[in-house]
Structures are given as structure tokens and as C-alpha cells.
Fold this sequence. Notes:
Chain A is mostly beta strands and 115 residues long. In chain A, 0% of the residues lie in helices and 48% in strands. Chain A has strands at residues 5-7, 10-13, 19-24, 31-38, 42-50, 65-69, 75-79, 88-95, 105-106, 110-114. In chain A, the strands form two sheets. In chain A, strands 2, 4, 5, 8, 9 and 10 form a six-stranded mixed beta sheet that branches. A four-stranded antiparallel beta sheet of chain A has the order 1-3-7-6, with no helix packed on it. The mean pLDDT of chain A is 93. Chain B is built from no helices and twelve strands. In chain B, a hairpin with a 6-residue loop joins strand 5 (33-39) and strand 6 (46-52). The termini of chain B are far apart. The chains are: A mainly beta (115), B mainly beta (113). At the A-B interface, strand 4, strand 5 and strand 8 of A face strand 6 and strand 11 of B.
Amino acid sequence: xxxVSQSPSNKVTEKGKDVxxxxxxxxxxxxxxxxxxxxxxxxxxxxxxxxxSAPDKSGLPSDRFSAERTGGSxxxxxxxxxxxxxxxxxxxASSSGTSGLNEQFFGPGTRLTVL
Amino acid sequence: xxxxxxxQPEMSVQEAETVTLSCTYDTSESDYYLFWYKQxxxxxxxxxxxxxxxxxxxxxxxxxxxxxxxxxxxxSLKISDSQLGDAAMYxxxxxxxxxxxxxxxxxxxxxxx
Lengths: 115, 113
């Protein structure tokens, strides 16, 4: 079956612009996670959604970052007024549950470059 | 807060040889899971192996095995009969009650033919 997909694969934007990154999880997966991978900070958790529960936003670095998940499926991560330090690879993962027994399947990521 | 530390930024191994990647973690939780993920240049993270903290037996998956030392909070990955396709970044990761993964800084593994 299809894995997790993310679009775009690469995104170049100018400082101050808003960007939207999209994640299509594996069909039927109730949990969806966003992570960021950067040279300076390594791999860090941003936000996760589980079913209809309120998302855990504890990893979002600033109020310029937000995410939503429509209909329990597709998710969009929005970064407003992008800064150069936002340059990173943004990874999305989904799983059939939130226990550690439920493997998180990752997408190929979106590489964001802020000029 | 939980932390995961990988002390080896880079490792090198000869093809067909064995290599061990180190990982230590810190947590006050009693119920948690540990993972090793592989990230090739394609960026796609792939789960290599998983260990449940409540299990004393070390996990194995074909050529991959772990040495889980719970008291020492150590979780190393052994790759036997290394292959060229094993070359990648390897990340140690932890998850507990919070559900999200906490990653170490990664180890770049190079395999020499």
C-alpha cells in the first residue's frame, strides 16, 4: 500500500513569506506527527494529532508555527513570516496508534530553504 | 524530560565486518520503548529495530541486534556482516508516555568495500 507522502519535496522561500507543507498519512492511521530536522537542532518533535483529541503542540518553537489535520487525514503545517532559522527538513510520520508498539512510518520530508 | 545521546558522530566498518553503535538515554519513566532508525540519503526514516523496556531479552532482526542495559540506560546497536547498503545515518530514539519520539544526534555509518 501507499506510504506517507509529503509535498512539496523541496520549497525555497524568501524571508517573511508564509509557507504550507502537506502530509498525507497512511490510510487508517489515527496518529500523525510532525518533526523537524536541522543541522543545529537535530531531529525534534513539533506536534502530534491523535484521532479527534486536541493536538499536542508542545514542540512548536514559536507562534509562527501551526498545524491542522482535516477530517482525521491530511495535515498541513503552516509557518508564517518565515525566518532563516526555519530552514530544515520537515518530516511527517503516521501510526495506527500512539503506543510505542505502533511503528511510526515516516514520509520523505520537505526540505525548506528560507533565503 | 527525556534525553538521548549518541556519542559517535561517525563510524566506519569494513564490508562483512561487525560494528556497534552506541546510545545512552535518560528518563524517569518506567514504561518506554527504544528504537533504532536508519536514514539513507533519500531522507526516508526506516525503523531498524525496537526494544520494549519491560522485556529483558535483547531484540534481534536478522543482522541487527541490540544490547539493552536498562540499569545503565544504554541501548547499543550491533550490525553483523555489514553491507554497502547499511551506509546511512542511524538514529537512536525513545518514546514513553508522551508518545512522540525523542531522537539522539545520529551516527553516520560508512561501509568500506
